[in-house]
Amino acid sequence: MHQCSTYCFTLSHAPTDYSFFDIGSEKAYLKSTSLHFSKTSISRVLARKKSIKISCYFAGDYLKSLPADEIKSIKKYVSNGQIELLAGTYHHSFTCLLSKKLFQEEIENHLQLINELFEIRPKGFYNTISIFSDDLVPMLIKHKFLYSYAPALEWYMRGIDQISVNSIDPKLKLLILSPSIDSKTMARQFPGESEESIQLKSIQAQDLFKKGKEKHTYALPNVTGRDASNRDLNFYLGNSLQKQVFKTLNSISPRIEKHKNKILKQHFLQLSTPHIFSLLHEDKASKLQHYSIIMSMLSDLELKSE
Fold this sequence. Notes:
With 306 residues, this protein is of the alpha/beta class. It is 36% helix and 16% strand.
């Protein structure tokens, strides 16, 4: 049995103590942190076992936060074929749900950075928390991606015995993230800091699509997504606090699309990430405090984008 493993490396954004009284000021919204690639378990595995092959999505802002020696280390594994680089959104953002224009910019900026750092144009696309719907297919084909990722919907999987399938347009293939579809290969996603070891023979996403034997079509008219911890979109957008933040971001997005201030746009994109929405989940004791802070930041964004 083979395992197709995809690792996702992103920045974590912790809100500052921003308040209503800071609106209109230049006070920072967020403090960003990340675990350097060389400190991760999978980096040590790659150094120890040359046979290990994985696919990786590195968010653009994560890559920009790394020192030169970390980039050099990643580049080594890309060059020797142990890491397959995937394209995605630059800030690991929910822009595909908010703005087609900003989503396209996120993809293009990520592709540009990958090319600058590694001189590679990825063939595969990994969207934020593997979000996918049929509506995304034309844009992904426009950007010449050959395959993307989609979560498995168990009720839909009857009769599908492959993890590599066609989208509604056969020019774009899909890798279904599920450990239990067929008996020969399973596909899983992991956070970059995962300590879980790879027990099976590892392959990369690109290896699944070389033979062109996809016999099923996986049509997803409704948006679905699932993160590396098996949490779906409802975890991030399900309660009233999360919905209000999303609604506010959505209302501001047309102004951000047209704005020329790159810092303002960066702040918007950072506030549109899964990590920010996870702070508002029901099981977070500080969710009301974070809600007040985030809404103050959005009020500031709205004021400055006028």
